[in-house]
């Protein structure tokens, strides 16, 4: 079985790297967070997600998929996130674009440049997936806001 992030090198805020296929293993939940520094809804949701992650950090791997317009903007927004989060590097536009196309998630301003894409969701979107890319919860942000920490139990089933 091919893993969604197989062959993808991810980085964190301190420039450590990890191979994407190492995430979501050992019973951990894997989440993709589609967001951007310039998005007011993303900025508003960030503290909620940070508080949730602070409690469940040992049970969850998060990968930030940026819609930022520059490396500096992406890095600035990453600094607002927990240090343990990973991101698709800004320079890996191919992987960022492929994830956006695969799940139909992007900012409205990106639709034309990502064509062909069937946009299903905008940003912010938190999506819980299996390592092979199967969707567990396509609207995990709403689930967190509605169920709080109980969301983790549902995702681990």
TrEMBL record:
BP terms from Gene Ontology: photoreceptor cell maintenance
Name under which the protein is recorded: Thioredoxin domain-containing protein
Short name of one Pfam family: Thioredoxin_8
Domain Thioredoxin: residue ranges: 4-154
């Amino acid at each position: 079985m091919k893993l969604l992030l197989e062959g993808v090198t991810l980085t964190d805020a301190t420039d450590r790297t990890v191979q994407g296929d190492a995430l979501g293993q050992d019973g951990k939940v894997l989440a993709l967070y589609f967001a951007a520094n310039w998005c007011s809804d993303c900025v508003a949701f960030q503290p909620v997600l940070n508080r949730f992650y602070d409690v469940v950090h040992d049970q969850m791997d998060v990968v930030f998929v940026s819609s930022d317009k520059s490396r500096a903007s992406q890095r600035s927004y990453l600094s607002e996130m927990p240090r343990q989060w990973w991101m698709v590097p800004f320079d890996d536009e191919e992987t960022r674009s492929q994830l956006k196309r695969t799940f139909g998630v992007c900012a409205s301003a990106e639709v034309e440049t990502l064509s062909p894409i069937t946009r299903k969701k905008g940003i912010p979107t938190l999506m819980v997936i299996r390592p092979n890319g199967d969707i567990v919860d396509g609207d995990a942000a709403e689930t967190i806001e509605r169920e709080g920490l109980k969301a983790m139990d549902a995702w681990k089933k």
